[in-house]
Amino acid sequence: MSNLKPFIRVAVTGAAGQICYSLLANICKGEMFGADQPVVLHLLDITPALGALRGVTLELEDCSFPLLVDFVVTDKPAEAFADVDVAILVGAMPRREGMVRADLLKANAGIFKAQGAALAAHAKPSVRVLVVGNPANTNALIALTTGSSLPKSAFTALTFLDHNRLKAQVACKLGVAVADVRNTFIWGNHSKTQYPDVSHGTVTNADGSLSRVMDLAESAWARDELVTTVQTRGAAVIKARKLSSAMSAAKAITDHMRTWWFGTEPDDIVSMAIYSDGTHYGVAEGIIFSFPVTIDAATGDINVVDGLDIDAFSQSMLDKTQAELIDEREAALAFLAESNL
Ligand SMILES: NC(=O)c1ccc[n+]([C@@H]2O[C@H](COP(=O)([O-])OP(=O)(O)OC[C@H]3O[C@@H](n4cnc5c(N)ncnc54)[C@H](O)[C@@H]3O)[C@@H](O)[C@H]2O)c1
Ligand SMILES: O=C(O)CC[C@H](O)C(=O)O
């Protein structure tokens, strides 16, 4: 008798693109929902990409994944989101060298408005949505504003890649294992105004005791070089690869969804961009803002870790990234209104 659970339906958009080329295998190997969780994949891309997507599905078949029950391939959001438990919205135009984020806002706002509406109309009411396509925070806001029948808590945006980048930089600088770095997190926008914060960071020593990152590293490094390196890491990848990050993005999407599905480990805090209801750290209501969070394994509730000390430097960084998110929101809404989308 099989020990497998009943299958779940997982929609992935931009399925013919480079992130999904890694991501789909992660899902089918059980790295996101567990080794006993079969999946039906709903793969959405635009009509001109369906040929390439067919190639991806030929490879999915050839992988012979035991957890892959079936897949649906479509260019129609209504079909892609029908009855899905999870939706991972990757499909969007990525930034290439020479493009600025404002170019992306316009290119992608209409996509996320339409997909938000399709999710509200067709997905399960319990659907969990992760927005990856940039500008991820503002795209998520547009999708949730449109998908008004779904709870705001159903929508998240990806800052787990920045979270992973920050941990890796700290581990490298201090010569410790990534797994021993804790309580470092990302505030705000997935952009170069994000605040990679190590002011509460700890390193677990061999004897189980904790050292503070700020006692091990110079504060000039933590507040200057480290922050800039993490803020501009995506741009560094684009400059070097002439393409935006893909393998690391797929890994981060997998980490985000697995953590949301199974809950955070005891004592662990992760970074997720969620709807700000105006009650945490003075962040304005009505933007999608990355906070330090824990996840309740039983309910899947994402809870902001409150009560952390915010010093003057951190406050100035929070203010800056919040201001950018408010500007992005206004620009996206104005664009949607002007273009009657
Ligand atoms: N939040 C993050 O941490 C993060 C990290 C890396 C990349 N990204 C973003 O993820 C997105 C995808 O990156 P990629 O490298 O896979 O890009 P890509 O160009 O390789 O793939 C994007 C895919 O999306 C498809 N697409 C475009 N419009 C669509 C629509 N309306 N519906 C469905 N599919 C659509 C394209 O046809 C393409 O197949 C980009 O916006 C990129 O900037 C975000
Ligand atoms: O467009 C960018 O600068 C970033 C692309 C991507 O979101 C990343 O973080 O790698």
UniProtKB/TrEMBL annotation:
Active site annotation, chain numbering: 190 (proton acceptor)
Binding-site residues for substrate, renumbered to this chain: 95, 101, 134, 165
Record-listed NAD(+) binding positions: 45, 108, 132-134
Enzyme kind, highest EC tier: oxidoreductase
One Pfam family, short name: Ldh_1_C
Domain Lactate/malate dehydrogenase C-terminal, chain residue ranges per copy: 159-335
SUPFAM superfamilies: LDH C-terminal domain-like (SSF56327), NAD(P)-binding Rossmann-fold domains (SSF51735)
Domain Lactate/malate dehydrogenase N-terminal span(s) in chain numbering: 9-152
Family listed: Belongs to the LDH/MDH superfamily. MDH type 2 family.
Annotated protein name in UniProt: malate dehydrogenase
